[in-house]
Design goal:
By secondary structure, the protein is an alpha/beta fold. The protein has 12 helices and 7 strands. It has a single domain, classed as 3-Layer(aba) Sandwich (Rossmann fold). It is about 45% helix and about 10% strand. The longest helix has 21 residues.
Length: about 290
């Protein structure tokens, strides 16, 4: 015969604890909440290559080959590089750094690299040699030498190739810059593969913690530059300063905006945060 047993306070507490534990476990293992509509819109905007590509070039196009005004007493900066040079300019301008300088840009496409004209054949792919040798269409270090002689500070910022990085000290030596001119070389950067669709299903905390592997060639190039840029030349390790590491880099800024829209170039928000890191943690902030 079965008898009904009145539940005690102890059995009630045990049951309550069991139910609470089960609910906690279920909550902890549940898939993360989706991003809010506003964060999803930001993610789509930040990964739009067409719109962000225009942002990359807007400032550097405005000052390409801009002559220095000798009547203005401001010191002069000549920025030489490719689209990564434009990135550096954006990082600088987003934070109003170096606003007391005259700044001009000499844009040399990535395909052509920063090598002296006539000596860059083996550093330029065969398919790009016609473009890079056409001085009417592209700029070069040779064309920029006169303006270099007028600058107080020369900043080289580019997506370097391995061979170009190896000979960069010799390239700069053959430019015959004056002893008082300061030379700064900005290292390469990379934020890995950007996959906006995948990020949509992740939580805020997962996105803030997300890091991509830095391209192996970028790591090699920065090691070469770190070892060879010495003496009067100053190397700024952009990857280490912005990412905190040479191996992995955050995908998102502190405000949950993409650092880069394509893995290579800054978004406006990436430029803003990267600029603060570059100038607060290196010689750039003391110029």
């Amino acid at each position: 015969m079965l008898f009904y047993k009145k539940p005690t306070i102890l059995t009630f507490l045990i049951t309550l604890i069991s139910v609470t534990t089960a609910l906690f476990t279920l909550t902890a293992t549940a898939s993360p909440a989706k991003l809010s509509a506003s964060l999803q819109r930001n993610l789509l905007a930040d990964s739009n290559v067409g719109v962000n590509g225009k942002y990359t070039f807007s400032r550097c196009n405005a000052i390409r080959k801009k002559p220095f005004n000798k009547k203005i007493p401001k010191r002069k900066i000549l920025l030489i590089g490719d689209s990564h040079g434009c990135d550096f300019l954006n990082a600088m301008r987003e934070n109003n750094y170096l606003r007391n300088y005259q700044v001009s840009m000499r844009y040399i496409p990535y395909q052509c690299q920063l090598v002296l004209h006539g000596k860059g054949g083996k550093f330029v792919a065969a398919k790009d040699r016609a473009l890079c040798s056409n001085e009417a269409r592209t700029d070069s270090l040779s064309q920029a030498k006169k303006q270099m002689s007028e600058a107080d500070i020369i900043i080289f910022a580019a997506r370097w190739k391995l061979n170009t990085a190896r000979i960069l000290p010799f390239t700069i030596k053959h430019l015959r810059l004056k002893p008082h001119q300061k030379v700064i070389v900005i290292g390469s950067k990379n934020f890995g593969k950007i996959t906006a669709r995948r990020y949509m299903g992740m939580s805020r905390n997962e996105l803030l913690a997300l890091k991509n592997n830095v391209d192996p060639d970028v790591r090699k190039i920065n090691t070469i530059l770190r070892q060879r840029i010495k003496g009067r030349m100053i190397f700024v390790d952009q990857t280490k300063l912005v990412c905190g590491s040479n191996k992995k880099c955050p995908v998102f800024t502190d405000h949950l905006r993409l650092f880069s829209y394509d893995g290579w170039h800054f978004t406006r928000y990436g430029a803003r945060q990267a600029g603060k890191m570059l100038f607060e943690k290196s010689i750039l902030g003391r110029m």
